[in-house]
Amino acid sequence: MQLFNQAIWNNSESDGYEPLLSEKGLVNVEVGETDLPDNLTRDTLELPKLSEPELARHYTRLSQMNYGIDNGPYPLGSCTMKYNPKFTEDIAAFPATAVHPDRDSESVQGTLEVYLKLQENLGQIGGMDAVTLQPPAGAAGEFTGILIAKAFHESNDESKQRNEVIIPSSAHGTNFASAAMAGYEVVELPADSDGRVDLDALSAAVGDSTAALMLTNPNTLGLFERNIQEIADIVHKAGGLLYYDGANLNALLGRARPGDMGFDIMHYNVHKTFATPHGGGGPGAGPIGVKQELKQFLPTPQVRETDNGYELFEPDQTIGKVHGAMGNWLVLLKAYAYISRLGNEGLRDTSAKAVLNANYLASQLDLEIPFRPFHHEFVASAGEQDAADFAKRMLDYGVHPPTTKWPETVREALMTEPTEAESKKTLEQLATAFNAVSNENFEALEQAPNRTTAWRIDQTSAARNPRLSWQHLDK
Fold first, then answer.
1. String of b and e for 448-460 (b: at least 16 CB within 10 Å)?
2. Stated pTM of the model
3. Least crowded by CB within 10 Å, which of 55, 209, 308, 387?
4. Domain end residue (candidates: 322, 341, 360)
5. What does the DSSP assignment read for 87-155?
6. Can you tell me the distance from the alpha carbon of 80 to that of 417, in angstroms, rounded to the nearest whole number?
């Protein structure tokens, strides 16, 4: 069976590339004619000699080597790996959606109408007065939002004075990076004993140098910041802006709006909240919403409706472009389709089930969960076990593990978010895997995983020095 776990081509130092599944006499699979420019053509193209069934089975095997949301539950805390409903893919595949970004406005009125309606929907959901769809990812949205805050302070001749961004210690790493990339000094804010913002520490941190506070609510422990209006007052009285990281908006859909809590700027992760594809390097989308006093700083162009239809325009004090086009159109279209199909009641139901599922799963676990009451996600502790080993062992039970080792406020953290899409039966299967691993010895965990296609890898080296061609390695 080893042969069937190998790729079509093998390479070695002595023999170079040699086909593993190729056999003399087999008919090559028809690859069709290609019309390539001269500089891209090759005089000879040697392909493995395979029958069509063998080629189909090879690529099917490759697809089965990965675990994805279509395989099973994906409870990565804070990442919100939601199931992507297939009807949105069908809509994105309509021939009419194939719109070149350089088309003139008159010829893409339908596209601009969808853009405007999505902007309005997101604004209503977040309690914001204006929205840009340009940022191509959540982190790009954060960066855009901080640039908007910077432009606001520049317009008040305070840009040099306000050179600090305050960020809770448990915040997403991209918050720190976004603030630093925008040229700000980062002030790290400790949590109180309940895992929420320490109001005394915040009062001591804010001042004339404060540009903004970046905050996630519920936070990364799944806890709602009960004192959010007091937090907003402290920041605003110091002359700063309040930025909402939309990573956990899935917990609040249809029930609470960041704009009503006092937030001035927010980004939406459409993959986390509105079920568009997530990860893999993109494409993504991270729209930004702002309050009225900040709308003139939004990226250009924006969409508006006139008596003659829909048109693009440039805000008065725009920060410029942050994306080559209006945004990642098909990803945004999927988000619009998702919101339109669910409607107000459907979105409310989404957040209710997200919170219910997280709490039900937690109730089935033997693990300690130090911080409660939580909403859509929780952080359990692996205790004496190493959380990373715990996660590797869960793979042997056929389920994807949670986020590990973060936030650091919980020892050997297992950050878990089942999302609203999972059934009671699936949650119970997840709980069985959690509890089984929690009762195993250290040796079993240290040797895991044993039942996956790939074994333990050096994740740092894999990211920095990836092998982009297949190589056979013994365990």
1. bbeeeeeeeeeee
2. 0.89
3. 308
4. 341
5. HHHHHHTSGGG---TTS-GGG-HHHHHHHHHHHHHHHHHHT-SEEE---SSHHHHHHHHHHHHHHHHHH
6. 7
User: Is 254:348 a contact under the CB 8 Å cutoff?
Assistant: yes
Q: What residues have CB less than 8 Å from 398, skipping those under 6 apart? A: 72, 433, 451
Distance (Å) of CA 274 to CA 70, 94, 246, 250: 17, 20, 12, 8
Would you say residue 17 lies in a domain?
A: no
- Residues spanned by the domain of 417: 343-464
Tokens of 295: 């709308």
Choose one of 306, 341, 376: the last residue of a domain.
Answer: 341
Query: Domain count of the chain?
Result: 2
Query: Can you tell me the distance from the alpha carbon of 197 to that of 167, in angstroms, rounded to the nearest whole number?
Result: 10
> Quick check: is 62 in a domain?
no
Does an H or E element contain 193, and which? none
Range 10-17 contact pairs with CB under 8 angstroms and sequence separation of 24 or more: 10/470, 10/472, 11/469, 11/470, 11/471
Quick one: 281 and 384 in the same domain?
Answer: no
Cβ-contact 225, 231 below 8 angstroms: yes
In 3-state terms, what secondary structure has residue 433? helix
Query: What are the residues whose beta carbons fall under 8 Å from the beta carbon of 300, sequence distance 6 or more?
Result: 313, 314, 315, 318, 320, 321
| Matching residue, tokens 């959540």 | 138
Report the distance separating Cα 251 and Cα 90, nearest Å: 27
Cα angle 390-394-398, degrees, rounded to a multiple of 5: 170
- Over the stretch 126-185, which tens digit does the pLDDT of each residue have? 999 999 999 999 999 999 999 999 999 999 999 899 999 999 998 999 999 999 999 999
Distances (CA, A) of 26 to 23, 31, 425: 6, 15, 47
pLDDT at 281: 55
- How close are the terminal C-alpha atoms of the chain, in Å? 15
Cross-strand bridge partners of residue 215? 244
